[in-house]
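Sample intake sheet
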Amino acid sequence: MKVGIVGIGLIGGSFAVDLRKEYRNVFLVGFDISPENQERALELGLIDKKGEASDWSSLDLVIVTVPVDAMLKVLPNVLDQISDDCLVMDAGSTKRQICEAVAGHPKRRNFLACHPIAGTEFSGPTAAHQGLYEGTTMIICEVEKTAFKLQERGMELINKVGMRVRYMNPEAHDKHIAYVSHLSHISSFMLGKTVIDKEENERDIFDLAGSGFESTVRLAKSSPDMWAPIFEQNKDNVLETLKEYIANLRDFKEKMEEGDFKSVYEQMLNTNRIKEILKGIPLTKTTK
């Protein structure tokens, strides 16, 4: 199987590592806007060759893992060049605009709209590693618009790298992902900004930051090149989540100002239920 990876960073590179492990005869071709990334990916063994225009027609599978703003141009261009039997999958963290960008394309049937719920705060070819996708979720949108035999090829790959599948429409995806992913990144970025703004002595941050701060601010290390376009494409949903988040922060602040620490305690106690949610345990709503 000949596979093209478009964007050889953490996401694309980790797919490459898993593909090489799971498929004995895979040949990996790397496309990237950065020649340095291509060269590094070749050195690391993530790819077998740097992609050229002549490679497109011979590919069986293409995985596109570029930032979502670039995706709107790159994805139609990829579909223009592939053969009729090639499957194209993306990894975009937004789905509505991406699906709209290829809705009328003659090779729409070749495209499987995907979002792997996996990642770290690191980027680039050196961040790629085996097992990134093991036990995680792959969201698939508009599966009915993909040719069935190509769906099967995509599902085989998804199963081999250890992912479970969740089907959603693009609008629902963007709404829900704003809460569970996009808001958490904004929170992390703004926590980091607040501390940097107030703690002028960087040594104090280094010496006093505990594991709680480090884990909460971890996502602030993520690439702005990737995340700013995500916030832009999902602006309406992100603004709605921010509205609710800010209201909760304001309420928490007011309770502290009023000395109502019983309510502060109850809010934190009720929020502890997130532990059960993340373990997949069904909840019954309770109050104390």
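Comment: The longest helix spans residues 170-198. The mean pLDDT is 92.
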